[in-house]
Amino acid sequence: MKIIAALNGLGEYLNTKDEALKAQINSVSNYNAWFNSANVTIAIDAWAKLLTSENLTNWVNAEGVLANHTPKKVGLVLAGNIPMVGFHDILSVLITGHEAHIKLSSQDQQLIPMLLEKLISIAPELKNKIFYPERLNAVDAVIATGSDNSARYFEYYFGNKPHIIRKNRNSIAVLSSNETPEEINILGKDIFQYFGLGCRNVSKIYLPKNYDLTYLLTHLESYQPIADFHKYHNNYDFQKSLLLVNGVKHLDNGFLLLKESAALQAAISVLHYEFYENLEALTEKINADQEKIQCVASHLNLAINTQLVGFGETQNPSLTDYADGINTIAFLKKIAN
């Protein structure tokens, strides 16, 4: 497939980190301060690793992507919480031979067009597959990602078309009392990468009863430099003030606030925790909440219906790790028939 060769070429380009690409990486924070060069580089490197002929061919073969069909116009309403988070949807549309009609997030309007411009320079025929319309009235199907509130609007506007509509999700971690200091430190990557803004970031941890919370905070100390970033620190100060004013019990290590809560979603700089008494009951609870959970980080062998990953791996999805557990390729194959 020509598209595989083109995407492999894009991956090779991302690996080069030439001066033009470095300049673009460094300029993105001028438009969205959360997208600092370190986090943009992490996202670029992740896609460079995924976009190889081997990975793409294995993906296509595993999914049985259609070779010949009448292309459909697929509207894509992209999220912008972390750099290039909507690129997998675009990739899925292109690799199945459809047209991508893209509505960029206001938070991520530079990176994706940059990648697609380079892709078109490698494979000019893709220019007729990538569009940025003002409205999505004329599309045949829609994949939209947003909050629980925006999902209601998406249902209203696109409910009469084939669609995937994604809502809020968060990721969690399940700990035993046996994690090593190194494992706790690696878990910090799941909590702090991208400042905790991603749906695959861990926003809540489940701990065995009587777990020593100071052990957790102590072995997350290496992430203290995150507080040097002004937007994160402003959120930390604000959340700390709220907890103090409202007299909410919490732990504080100077850059992370630990708060006991049943809620899965936590504010930036806040990590919720909840104690469990036995894994069987916790497993049932996680399965009951599976539509709110993106993935689970743990070294325990949990019998859950949600994706289970090791510590430090929540932000390293493969091409077959579909958001919300909904197979995008299967959906795109279905609308082709």
Summed up, what is this model?
The chain is an alpha/beta fold. Helices cover 40% and strands 16% of the residues.
Could you explain how this protein is built, in words?
There is one protein chain. With 337 residues, this protein is α/β, with parallel strands linked by helices. The chain folds into 2 domains: 2-168, Aldehyde Dehydrogenase, Chain A, domain 1, CATH 3.40.605.10; 170-309, Aldehyde Dehydrogenase, Chain A, domain 2, CATH 3.40.309.10. The chain has 12 helices and 12 strands. It has a 7-stranded mixed β-sheet with strand order 8-9-10-7-6-11-12, with helices on both faces. A hairpin with a 4-residue loop joins β8 and β9 (257-260).
CATH topology heading of the largest domain: Aldehyde Dehydrogenase, Chain A, domain 1
The helix content, as a percent range, equals: 25-40%
**Overall pLDDT:** 95
Separation of termini? Answer: 20 Å
Basic shape? globular
CATH superfamily of the largest domain: Aldehyde Dehydrogenase, Chain A, domain 1
Strand count, sense and barrel status of the largest sheet are: 7 strands, mixed
Topology:
Blueprint: H1 2-16, H2 19-27, H3 37-50, H4 53-63, E1 73-77, H5 87-95, E2 99-103, H6 111-122, E3 130-131, E4 141-145, H7 148-158, E5 163-166, E6 170-174, H8 181-192, E7 202-208, H9 213-218, H10 230-245, E8 251-252, E9 257-260, E10 270-276, H11 279-288, E11 293-297, E12 307-309, H12 328-336
Parallel strand pairs: 1-2, 1-4, 2-3, 4-5, 6-7, 6-11, 7-10, 9-10, 11-12
Antiparallel strand pairs: 8-9
Helix pairs in contact: 1-3, 1-6
